[in-house]
Every structure is written in structure tokens, then in C-alpha cells.
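Pasting as-is:
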Amino acid sequence: MTTTASSSEALQQVMARNRESVDMAAIMLCAALAAIILVLYILTRLNYFTGLDKSIGIYMMADELLLLSAVVIGALDKRHKTPIRLFIIAALMVTALIISTVLSFPYLMFALPIVLVTAYYDGRFTLAIAVIGAALMCIEPFFSSYIGITHMQYVDFKTYTDGSIIITSDSMTEAAREFARFTVPSLPIYAAMVGLSVWVTDRGLKLMKERSALAETQIALENELSIAAGIQQGMLPEDFPDEESYAITATMVPAKDVGGDFYDFIKIGSSRVAFLVADVSGKGMPAALFMASARTLVRSNLENGLQVDVVMDRTNAELIKSNKEKLFVTAWLGMLDLKTGALSYVNAGHNPPFLIRADGSVESVRSRPNFVLGRKKGLRYMEHRMQLSPGDRLLLYTDGLTDATNPEGEMFTVERVEERLRSGCVSVDSMMDEVRAFSGGADQFDDLTMLLVEYREPKTIAYSEGEVFDADPAGHDAAIAYIRSRLEEAGCSEKVIRDMEVSSSEVISNINMYAYPDGGGTVRVSADVVERIATVIFRDTGPEYNPLERSNPDAEKRIREHKIGGFGIFIVKKLMDDVRYERTDGMNVLTIMKEMR
């Protein structure tokens, strides 16, 4: 209902502006005709027209006053209400009668008001004026005869024997002949012109309504796109972290109101941060919707504590289920351990990022890319690893950066990006300035997204030394009791303590089984709460073994095959906010963390 009312208001505004333009044209036409009538009046008074009754001057002067009145009234009243508009048109119609009488143009002058009123896009008004014009055309021969114009082609010549010629004529007969020979043949032409004028008014009004509706639809669409763009921008994180151990900045500039690029980052536990940049195929609303779905899936899987390869596996599987438009996503997802600088990442068909070392050297992080997300079922994505040092920075981007063009059609290219980085242009804002300067105002054809991660000095947290327990059932129970005691003293909730007990039990059982299969070993356990994060660290001297490298078990398959076990580390991952492993000084060190909510 609101849209209809708004569309009607828009149409009325257009019609009002159009009427104002036509009214101004009518006033200008009245002024021009007033000048013509004045000239004709002067010529008539100078006997320029022979055979013309001088009484025509009276009519011409009356018409002159009528036209000037129309001009003055039209100029003073800016709104031009219907009575004034009718008065202006009436002045034009009377002028048509006077001029056609003086100059014997029975067709031309009556066409002018019809052409003019056609521009009002009012079929009834046009038809009414046309009927009045036709009536005046029929009156014109008799009006001409009445005021004394003599047309020689209608007179009778009689010759007498003395050589004299007598001209005989009857004014009404003359008028009837002129009506029959000129007016009647003119009326079909005039009627055809009127029919065309009425069709033009109706067609014009219809087109105006269609364009008004189209404009209203366009405005509504632009409003919706603006809202969608706002929602999309709202989905992107803008509170960029600038902490002791790391910092992130990013930007996304869509080529249209909404785009298919996106970036994201999320803190996982106290010591890991995940970040990604992605590019959805296509542009506009479909790409934006697919982008929202992909971002939600990636973030959800990261929040569930999954490793980057598993995150991509599951995101790909979910996207395929609802991908009717056959879109796809290229993405680069990384997870950085803030305590060690270890970076694990997956490249799903995306541009390789640039690594800017602390010494200023630049290298491309190239690895064998995995396939894009959303197009193939059953894919398993390969995880890659690398080590960052304090001061290293990683620039992720989409091809909107390298494919940015200048007015000559030249692209910015990967080589230019690398050259700018080597010259010290190592920030999102400075790189955007470089691209804008290169583009020189050329249109942006692709979404442009960048994300810069800086790894800083890892934050050192001092944990307690803990206690040593035997790697046997008795030691297991003693370690669990120790963990509960430490966490209760620190004020942890019962839920956090229970989750820690379950997870610690699984970890200690795995250590007893795999680190010391023959018995006789020990496990050092520390339990602390630092910055409202409960942390339990397990250290053993068994063979190197990273339980986090094991893939998550297929629960349904193991149940079908009646297999028991294999869920220990999976349970730990689900209960904890952060799980980390490292090999230090010949020991396996496994850390589990959970926030005190």
C-alpha cells in the first residue's frame, strides 16, 4: 500500500512538472502571437492588406488584449490552476480564428493549440479543445465573410454588351462555397491529427505511469541494496585487534552495492587467532547471500574448535547442499598460535598471500592449492604449516587488488603489489592509496578485499610447576583430585571444573596408554587460572606424539561397526575452548584451556 501511494505521488510530481513546462510554453506562444497580431494590426492600419474591411482591426485589437491578458495572468500565477490554463488556451483558439481569417490559413493555426495541449497528457482535455477547434474551423468562412474579406475565386463575373463587367457575389453564398471547398476537405485531416494527438496523450500518460512505477521500483531496489550493503558491512568485523601479541587490519570495497568478497577473524581461546579472506564467484545479491552463508559456516566450524582443514571440509560439504546457483568460493584460511608463531593454513583455490618478514624481505606464500569451496563433494582439504617470527606480517587479498585497472586498461598486477610491499607500503590503507592513485578514477570492476596480520612478541604467561603423578590408575585419580582442588581455589564454576575433569581424564588415560605402554612413567600436571582462563598442562617424557593430528572419528560409522573408543581427544576438543600441543625439551606438552564464563 505504501509503495502504491509513493508511486502515485511520484507520478503526480512528474505530471505537475510537465504541466509547468507546457504552461510556460503556452505563455511564450501567447506572447509571440501577441507580437504577430500587433504587426498585423499595424499593417492593416497602413492599408497593407487590400480588400480587407477595416473593422478587422477591432477584432485584432481585442485579440491583442486577450493574448496580453493571458501572458500577464499566466506570469503572475505560478501554479496555473485549471481556469487560468483554460483561459490561456482560449486566447490561443481565438487568435487562431482571427489569424486564419486575416491570412486565410484555415488549417494551420487550429493545429497549434491541439499540439500544445497534447503535451498535458490528458486525452479528454485534448479532445475537448479539438472539438472547439473544429467548431471554429466551421465558423471561420462565415466569420470571414461577415467582416468583409473578398475571395475572388468565389465571385461571379457577368459581361454586358457595352464591354463592362459586373462582379456579383452573395456573402453567405461565398461563405458556403468556401466551407464546402476548403473547410470540409480539411476536417478529415484535422480529425486524423486529433486522433493522433489523443493517442499520443494516452500513450504518453501510460509511458509516464510505467516509468514512474519503474522509477519507484528502482528506488525501492536501491533502498533494499543499500540495506543489504549495510547488513553485509555489519557482518564484517570492524573492531580490529591491536594487542601485545598480534594486530589485524582489513578492508572490503565492493564493486557494486553488495559484493561477494569477505574477510573474517576470530580469537580462539587465549592463544590462537583464525583469519581468512574469501572471494565468491559472481557479483551482486546472489554472491552476497552465498558469501553470508560461507562466512557463517566457516565461523561456526572455527568456534567448534576444529582444525583449519576440517573447517574447510565441513564448510565445503554444507555449501554444496544448497548451491543451486552453482557458485563457488575461493578462500585462504589461517590459524596462528600466538604463543609460538606456528601458522597452519588451507588455500582453497585462492591467491597466495604475501609474507613480509621483520627484516623487510617479501615472499609469496605458495603451496599446492586445494579446490574451491562449494563445487565438489567429498573433498578433503590439505593443511600446510609455516613458522612466523615476531615482526612478520601476512597480507591476504582478493584478485580485485591485482586486477584493478587504470584508464588505459592496464592492471595493477601481483608484481606491483610485491614491489609496493618491498618499498615499505605495508599497511591496508597505504596499499589502497596506491591502488586509487594507479586507477586514476577508472571504474572498479571487481570487489577488493585485503587483510593484514602482524605477529608480535608472544605474551609470556607464568604457570605453576604443578605436581608429578604416576602413570597408573592411582596416579590418574590423584591428578584429577589435584586439578579439582586448584580450580576450586581459583573460583571456577562447577561446570568448568567438571568439563576440565572429563577432559583431563581422557588426556591422562591416553598418556598412560601411548606414552608408557609398559608402565613406570610419570606425568607432570599443572592447573592454573590466568586472566579468567582455566589452564591445565600435561607433560610426559614418552615418544613424540601429537594427538591433535588425528582426524575426528566418524561417530555413525563406529557405532554401525560396534567399535568402542577412539573419541577421547575428540571429546577434549569439544569441551575445551583451546587445545594445543608442542614438543619441548624432549617432552610432550599438551595444554587445555577453558574460559570462566
